[in-house]
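From the pipeline queue, job 12 of 40. The input is one protein chain; the requested action is below.

Action: predict structure.
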Amino acid sequence: MGPSTINFPAVLAAAVAYMILGALWYSPALFGNAWMRGIGKTKEQVAADFSPLNYVWAIVTAFFAAYGIARIMSWTGGGTIGDGIKVSLLLGICLIAAALWMNDKFEARPVALSLINVTYHLCGLVVVGIIIGAWQ
């Protein structure tokens, strides 16, 4: 179960796909305006808070998520798109969604904001799982 069992080009491609989905998801064309309302900020405030380091952090964390899915698939012998979807949904629902919902409840975040964020990560992880599963 060493590093050689992980397809790192697939992990990198999956991380980039996760980021691209995020760019679309949080754009005004999809959920960007509702997300800004949910966090209580205007477009100008979001722009003022912008830092290129945010994108560096996002690609690093997307890579960790993609690596985690690839590693678990390697450990379990999964190597198909279906396996990737199953692992991604299991991790997404049991870990990511549960943690986000828990935090959002304690922070009194709007339900709409929680739905936007949770469904983004669920969809993003499924995309990651599909790429990892297809590229095994």
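Job complete. The chain has a mean pLDDT of 94.
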